[in-house]
Structure formats: structure tokens, C-alpha cells
# Entry
Amino acid sequence: MFNLIPSGSVTSASGFLAGAVHAGIKSEDELDLAILCSEVPCKAAGVFTTSQIKSAPVILSQKHIAKGRAQAIVVNSGCANACMGGQGLADALGMANLAAAKLGLSPEDILVASTGIIGVPLPMDKIRTGIPKIKPTRGGGHDFCRSIMTTDTRPKEMAVQVDSKGTKFTIGGVAKGIGMIHPNLATMLCFIATDAVVSADFLPAALQKAVDCSFNMVSIDGDTSPNDCAFLLANGLAGNEPIDFDNGGDFQEALTAVCTHLAKSMARDGEGATKLIEVTVEGAEDPVWARQAARTIASSPLVKAAIHGNDPNWGRIVAALGRSGARVREDRLDVYLNDVCVMKQGCPTPFIKAEMISALSNSDNVFIRLCLHLGDGQATAWGCDLSEEYVRINSRYTT
Amino acid sequence: MFNLIPSGSVTSASGFLAGAVHAGIKSEDELDLAILCSEVPCKAAGVFTTSQIKSAPVILSQKHIAKGRAQAIVVNSGCANACMGGQGLADALGMANLAAAKLGLSPEDILVASTGIIGVPLPMDKIRTGIPKIKPTRGGGHDFCRSIMTTDTRPKEMAVQVDSKGTKFTIGGVAKGIGMIHPNLATMLCFIATDAVVSADFLPAALQKAVDCSFNMVSIDGDTSPNDCAFLLANGLAGNEPIDFDNGGDFQEALTAVCTHLAKSMARDGEGATKLIEVTVEGAEDPVWARQAARTIASSPLVKAAIHGNDPNWGRIVAALGRSGARVREDRLDVYLNDVCVMKQGCPTPFIKAEMISALSNSDNVFIRLCLHLGDGQATAWGCDLSEEYVRINSRYTT
# Structure
């Protein structure tokens, strides 16, 4: 059981502080350098990009988080510090050293994240001047959230209070969307801070599970960044009975809810997006194929363009399902668009087109549901419509 | 060794005839129903969509071609005859029966293909009236080509004369692009006719090999149609020494060249496209990963949008490579854009940006080359840029 904390942020849990400054990495007067830290050491877990091309901060943070603990995260926007060879690694380590000096911690307790243009050196002079100016406070979560935004048009943050077996703890999360910076590279960053006492084994498992059914089910355009990462810090200040695999249900549920909220916020705020698309696949042979089918449909350019035009063009949904790899028996397939059945057992079902178009036009959320009637596999994926504005944003860099 | 036949078509090889009519399946006064036939029985091979959702004509043609022979192909545009259950299969068979009666052949010797809107019944009355009016002639290849065009803006056909070991034979091919119809579903159709004598075993192998490095390396938007198919008919009228695995080099080379030309024509004519993008990956661990990497880059929306904007934004190329699954050692990676090195051994290489932008702006063909320096794997893929026009075409169905 959990409750939303009004105006919650990544610093809603006890003992977490954050702050941000404008260091000048971005050209405009925006926050672009930030720190999230805990008053006490945290257990830490991370999930990183699967790209073969990893940014320097990802490589460094993977090393630092391997021991399962951390106490602070330093982040910059405006420069990805990716594809910079040895210089990039030295600069990421430099950032960790500067944050460690500022906070009186060891560099190994610092995680680093960057988002922005790739193939451009990190402006270390600005980082060096900026980090000492950051003043982490209890109320700094919202500033932290704004500092990692790039083409995001809305902040993405959420905190919940969990009431589990008589004790209370808090989970706060913040993310930046899969928007390009400047516009250069899609990066997803997510930071979650909790005061719950959580076992070292359960923490990474819980994060992976939450990420798998939230961020990993979002597609804006199918591209993956060298900088993607999600971090979870647990400082244990809530003093609850330690959470582990056998009693972690409430924690997992709340963590997944926070991640899902942030993931859907990303999809809704995709570049040029006007609608959130939610695709649920039910009755697949197994959950793996359900996931694959839901993701394929949610990321199909043809489906996304049709939804943008309020076009109940369900043939494109079925075509995307067909190429997803999931087993399909056409004569068992049912398809629903905004809860209206458009295909039943593989044959078109008549519907009033004008009504459907009108419903699509008046809706910011479009629900696509497919029932495969082959097994128990179920999954939901989120995406957004494909608009002319997406192309404009991503082709007008030099002009 | 082969030579291009000026104004060649699918009927350039001896003994092939074609004709087309406007049957009224498309609303405008365009050719929409056509027959390609041979004066004598042919050995036949086919490659079909990998989608789990197969159109009725694909299901029927797979059955008919299983015996390795055919004598005619009947095709309609304007209606895909897909997702129509048992009615769809009956209608596809009806089309084969009508064509067989017209040509005095057995229905099993007829292959059927359709392209168009899915989930709509085939107007059998129009097919029934139209087929008897088709008059196949030696010069009918160009009409056949136009009859299968949908949003294609240019016809796609080519014929070559092959001089192999003292005998001559001809290969003619025609295709329709991966443009949506009306706009509904992307379908790729390809028909190839040769008068060469080819062994029954070598024919399907040669077609598969040619398709793998041509059509299977083209991406417009990553979507796959239930109707995709490529057919190869060989009527043997050239009287050459039978071509088989041991002496098939010239045939394979010419067949691949025809398929590659048609495939590149498709990419160039992609919906809303203004540029052809050619991506070559060299030095991959093996050819499979080279293919995967080249295809991933050629179909990345971010790469495609950047090329549309003449933006030398190579970070997106590297990011797409990174997520392709191919093994990459960043410190060995070289990247070339239009033959200018932009990344060497994993680090950015300075280039004159204004010159690059100007070169991109003035070019209809953009060449991307990546050297992985890990092995001998090599592959080339083709795609097109992503424009606002693509989104307009695919979102304005109902408005």
C-alpha cells in the first residue's frame, strides 16, 4: 500500500539532499550541474545502457556501483562525455573527484551521469567552478529535476509513502525523458532515492524488475543512448524491518509504480508527441513474446503516424504484431482500439468510423489491446505518436 | 558479365508476356490488375514475408510454388486481401482460377499477389470482369510495372543480358516499393523473369541469396507487410547449358545486380524521401553482425532525420551501431560520412563542418561507412531520410 506525496521529489525520503547550479555547459541560463546525496552511506543499485558504445560516466559508475554502495550522484546536462576515448574517462573521474572533495566523501562513493552532445569534450573548467557552488538541501529535489531536463517540456518526478507491515518508508524518483539534447542523442536518466532498509541482494533485483516493466517498455523512436542509466539509492533511515525477497512485495509494488509513472511521463513528453499510446498484449504464449509484441507495436512508425492522424487504421497494428516475432494464430486474434473491438477472431469487426475518429481526436491517451488467446503472457508498453514536429526537431540542427 | 538492356522490363526475357487493365479496384483511372505469363512452363522460386500475419495470396502462392513450377502470376493493387479469414483464401483462389481459365492453364500453375488496404474484401466482381480483358504481350512489361505501383512515384524495373560461357540469357525484374497504399500498408512485391535454363535446386538458392543482400537490406521504416513476396520464373527458352551451383556465378551476379537495383530504387523512392542512404559496415566479427549493424543504422529514425537536415551528426550513427548488437571495440572504430573521416579509433576527427553540410545538401546519395577492425564481416544496407512529408503521408488518412 502506498500513497502519493503531493509535490514529492527525489529528496522526499529522509536524509536525501540535492542542489543544482547553472555552470554554463548549456548556453542558456538553465540549471545544468547537480548533486544528489545522502546524509549517510547508501546501498546502491544501477541499471545501465545495453549499448556497446558506453559513455565514460556509465563506465565509471558501473565500476563504482559494483560494490553495492554509494552516497552521492553528480550529474551534468549539455554534454554526454561519450566517444571521447581516454580523455572522457579522465573527465568522468575528475567529476567524481570534485564532487567527493565538495562532500567530504571518497570518489568511489560517487556515481556520475551525463547527458548531452556526444563527441564533445566535457568543459572541465566549468565543472570545476560549478561543483563547489552547489548547495544540497532537503528541498533541492525539484531543482535537481530541472537540471537534468533537456528537450523535456515537463519535469518528471514522483514520490510515494509506503505503509508496509506497520512501518513507513518513502521512495522518491526523478527522470529525464528520451528527448534529444540540442538535438543530439536520446538519453534516459533516472534517479531513485529511498529511506527504506533493503537487503543488498534484493535492491538490484527490485530495480531490475521495476525497470523491465517500466522504462524498458517505453519507446520514443527505438534509439538507445550510450548514457542511459537508472540508479537506486537506499539509505535505510526509515528504520523498517529489512526488506528482502520474502517480504519485499510492498516495496516492489511502490518502486514499480514510481518507475512506471516516470516512464509514462517520458512517453507522453516524447519529442513532438501529442498523445500517449499504451499497448497491452494479452494471451501470448509467454511473457517474453508479449513484451516483444507490445514493444514492436508501440514503436512502429506506421502505428505512431496513424495515431497522430487520429486514424483507426488497425491494419498497421496487426502488421506490427505479425513481424514482432510473437506467435500469432490469426483466427484467434482480437484487437481493441480505445476499448472498441476492431478485429475479432482474425476478421474485421464493423465500427462507426466517425465516432472512432472523434474519440481518438479528443483523447490524449490511446489504448491498444490485443488478445492472442494462446497462453498467459501479458505485457504493456508505452509510446507516443509520430508527428511532423519530431522530424523538425531532429533534422534542424544545422539550419 | 552482364549488360543493361535499355528500357528493359520484366518481359525482356524470351517467351514472357504481360498485360494490365484498370479493373476499378483503385478509385482513380489507374492500372490495378495484371498478368505476367510465360509461353511455356517455368521453374519457379519465391521468397515470402516473415510476418506471422500472412495475406491470403501469400498463403496460396506458397502452396502453389512448393512444387517448384509455375507459368503465370496474377496481381492486383488497391486491396491487400489480408486479415479476411476464410473469405480471403477463397478470393485468392478465385483469382487464380480466373487467371487459369483466361490462360488455359491449371490453377496450380498460377501465383497470386495483392497489395493495398488490409481488412477489406477483394472486389471479386471487378476481378471477374477485369481478368478476361487483360491482353498479355511481349511489350507489356512496362504496363505491368505501372499496375503494381501504389504510392511509388517512379517505376522500378530493370533487365540485363548475361553472357556466360558462350551462351546468352536475359533476366528482367520489376518491383513495387515500400510505399503505403492509400496510405495503409507497406508492401514490397518483386517479380523476376528469366529465359535461362536453371536447375530446380539452384533457382531458389540463387533467389534467396540475391534477396538477402538486396531487398532484405532495405529499410524504409522498419515495418513488414503480410503481403511481401518476390517471385523468380525461369522458362529455359535461352537454351543455355543448365545453370547449377557449380557454374551459377554469372547468373547469381546478374540476378543480385537486378535485385540490388530494384532495392535501391525502393529506398530512394521511400515515402517522403529526398535522399538515398547507403550504409556499409566493414571489419565486423562476422557477416551476420555486419548485416545487423548496417540495417540498424540505415533504419534509425535519428540518423534518418539528421540526414534529412544535412546534419553531419555522426554521434547518432555511432549510437545506432552501439545498440545494433554487433560487437564493437570503441578504440578501433573508424567512421566515414561521404568518405570524410569523422571518427578515428573511437575519437572525433576534426572536419570542416560547413563543407560537410554543403556536400550533404548537394547530394542525393549519402554514404556512411564504418570500419570495426574486428574481422572480415562486411555488409551494405540502404535506407532513406525521414522527412516531415513521411509523417504527413502516414497520418492524414482520415483528415
Observations:
- Residues 249-268 of chain A form the longest helix (20 residues).
- Chain A has two domains: 2-268, 276-395.
